[in-house]
Inverse folding.
C-alpha cells in the first residue's frame, strides 16, 4: 500500500469551478447523466429476494491502469438521504460512472430505508449493507484486497459502522459529510423532518439507549484507514459532525485523515464540482 498522500487537517482551496448548492441541481445532473450514459458498462445485480436488494456494478474499460493479477480496485458506494427509502442509489450513479472512467470499479448499492408507516428498520438497513459488502467479494475481476467504501451523509454513517464491524475490513473508508454522532444529530433536528434518526431507529435515545450506542460511529473506533470529507458550507450535516468524530477518535488513539472542501452538502458528490475532483485524485493517489 502506498502512503496516504492526504495530510490530517488538509483544506483544499477551490479552483473556481461551479459548485452545486441545492439538491434540485444535483438531481437534475443525476437524471442527465443517467440518460446520456444509457447505463453503458453498468450491470445491475439482484443479490437478494427483496426489490431493494441489488447493486449496480460499474466496471472500467479493460485494461485499467490500476489492474493487477487479482483484478481492479473497487469502491462500494452508499448513498445518503437520512436512511429514507425515497432516496436511492441513483444519487451515487454519476460517481460510479466517473470512477469507472478513471479505471476504478464501483459497486453502487441499495438498501432498506424507512418510510411513513415503515420505521425502525435499522436492522434491515445494516444487514443489507453488510450483505452487499459480502457480495462484492464474490465478483470476478475485482481485487478484493483493494476494496474501499465511500458513503455520503447517512451513507457515511453506514460506511463508518461497516468499517468498524465488518469481518473483512475495507482498504480505505471515505465518509463524505457523514453523520457521526446520532445523538447530536437528533438534538440538532437534522433532516427535513427533524426526526429522521429516531424514525430510522424506531425510538428515541432515552427509550433505546443501547441501540443508539450500537449505531453511533463516535462510539466505535475503526482500525482502518479513514478519510473524512466535509464541505465548509454544509448546512444539512454541519462540519462539526466530522470534527467531533476526528476529535473523539484521536482521544481513543485512532488517527483519521480530514479533507475540508469549500463546498456544501451536495458538492462533495457532484461530479461537476472541484470538490469531487479533489476526492477522485485522492483515491487515485492512494492506489
Amino acid at each position: 500500500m502506498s502512503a496516504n498522500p492526504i495530510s490530517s487537517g488538509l483544506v483544499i482551496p477551490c479552483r473556481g469551478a461551479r459548485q452545486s448548492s441545492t439538491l434540485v441541481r444535483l438531481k437534475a445532473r443525476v437524471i442527465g447523466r443517467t440518460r446520456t450514459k444509457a447505463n453503458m458498462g453498468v450491470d445491475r445485480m439482484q443479490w437478494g429476494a427483496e426489490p431493494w436488494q441489488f447493486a449496480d456494478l460499474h466496471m472500467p474499460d479493460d485494461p485499467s491502469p490500476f489492474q493487477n493479477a487479482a483484478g481492479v480496485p473497487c469502491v462500494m458506494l452508499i448513498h445518503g438521504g437520512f436512511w429514507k427509502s425515497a432516496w436511492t442509489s441513483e444519487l451515487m450513479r454519476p460517481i460510479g460512472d466517473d470512477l469507472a472512467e478513471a479505471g476504478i470499479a464501483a459497486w453502487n448499492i441499495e438498501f432498506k430505508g424507512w418510510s411513513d408507516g415503515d420505521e425502525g428498520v435499522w436492522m434491515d438497513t445494516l444487514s443489507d449493507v453488510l450483505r452487499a459488502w459480502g457480495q462484492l467479494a464474490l465478483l470476478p475481476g475485482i481485487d478484493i484486497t483493494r476494496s474501499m467504501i465511500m458513503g455520503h451523509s447517512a451513507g457515511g454513517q453506514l460506511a463508518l459502522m461497516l468499517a468498524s464491524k465488518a469481518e473483512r475490513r475495507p482498504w480505505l473508508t471515505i465518509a463524505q459529510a457523514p453523520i457521526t454522532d446520532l445523538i447530536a444529530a437528533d438534538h440538532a433536528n437534522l433532516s427535513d423532518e427533524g426526526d429522521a434518526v429516531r424514525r430510522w431507529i424506531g425510538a428515541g435515545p432515552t427509550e433505546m439507549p443501547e441501540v443508539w450506542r450500537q449505531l453511533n460511529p463516535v462510539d466505535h473506533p475503526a482500525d482502518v484507514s479513514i478519510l473524512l470529507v466535509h464541505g465548509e458550507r454544509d448546512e444539512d450535516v454541519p462540519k462539526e459532525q466530522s470534527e467531533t468524530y476526528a476529535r473523539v477518535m484521536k482521544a481513543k488513539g485512532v488517527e483519521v485523515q480530514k479533507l475540508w472542501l469549500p463546498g456544501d452538502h451536495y458538492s462533495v458528490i457532484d461530479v461537476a464540482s472541484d470538490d469531487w475532483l479533489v476526492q477522485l485524485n485522492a483515491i487515485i493517489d492512494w492506489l
